[in-house]
Amino acid sequence: MTTPSTDFDLQYLTTHLSRQHLPWEVMYLPHTTSTNDIVRAHARTGHAEGLVVVTDHQTQGRGQQGRAWFDQPAQALLCSILLRPTWLISQHTPHLVNAFVATLADTLAQFVPVPVAIKWPNDVVLALGGGMAKVAGVLCEGQMNQSGMQYICVGWGVNVHGAPPVGVVNQPISHLAAHVAGAVTRTAVLQAQLEAFGACYQRLRHDVYAYQSTWQARQYLIGQDVRIRYGATVVAGRALGLAPDGGLVIETEDGPQTVHGGWVEVE
Question: Is residue 2 domain-resident?
Answer without folding.
Answer: no
